[in-house]
Amino acid sequence: MALKVGIVGFRGIGQNHAKAHMDDPLSELVAVCDVVKERADEAVEKHGVKVYYSVSEMLNAHPDLDIVDVCTGGDENGGWHYEPTMEALAAGKHVLVEKPISNTVTEAREMVSFAAEKGLYLGCNLNHYFTAPADKAREAIAEGKIGEQLFCLMRMGFQGGEFSYDGPGDNPNSNGFPYFHVKAFLAHPFSIMRHFCGDITQIQAFMNRPGFRKTAQDPMVSVNSIHVKFSNGCVGYLFSQRGDTTMGYGGWWSVEVGGTKGSFSIENCVEKYSYYPAPGSDGKADPENLGPKAVIEPEVFNTGITDFGTTFPSRIHAFMEDVTNKVPFEKLRASGRDALATLEYTFAAIESFESGGETVRPHPLPKQQRVAQ
Fold it and tell me: What is the pLDDT of residue 286?
């Protein structure tokens, strides 16, 4: 039987989620809430669902809701996530919340703690690894094809440069917030790195903004260079930027993870996976004949998919599937705890940057919740 869903927030992201729920056999979208009446009323025309103008009104009208999907924005794109999430959890509803889980780490910790206390699922839309290339990469890791992990290189950012920059803009979610990009954006690359390599234990960050932003008096710290160490001993590097430059390899998104038995790379999130076996494995290249210019021919998997938007229904279906199947909490994919990890790393990076590049240890994560209601 399909689970009953109510959406909070009906701008672009909320509309993407609504379509995914309408197309998903595990979802029954029954209600939409938005504090802006005109936006909420759009849901009647598009989906024929009941609309409300406050979370409490929606919850009172639909006590049989199973899931509340929080798609609000707010300051730094996460400022309005806390209140509707906590209200829905207090009403006994499972919650899927957009990223970042919050724009403050204290609120995020409270959200994760309250969900655990209530015995409810809290998931986050960390959708970048709900893809065929990411599945291939996880298979390679599980099959031992990477071996001992040694490095992880992650790059993510909008393509751009000084010719395409058109000023700070007037978006109230970002304007005047120097760490808007850091808080709103880094959840995704940090989630990818952790998905493949595990928990991060040390972080060192250097950040900047290009001259054209300084000239325009744009305070956004938009260029992020972050060095990390994982609990398994692997080291990593994350480069992130917000339309300040143009990136070649992998376009706007690329990750490479390498180890003692091979490495893999993913380009543009949904598009391409490549595996590079280590010399000497399975008859690949005679190690004795290798030099610095040796070329290892990869095994390439092109998905034929170029639409990043396909990650939304994939991720939402995974959450609906996990809740339907009542998976153990440690098996919930892209959980609130996972999202909290990315925010702990984000705030550790900010602390490192503000201290001149000192190494910072992220705040430890709460123990894994294991018992569902």
Answer: 65
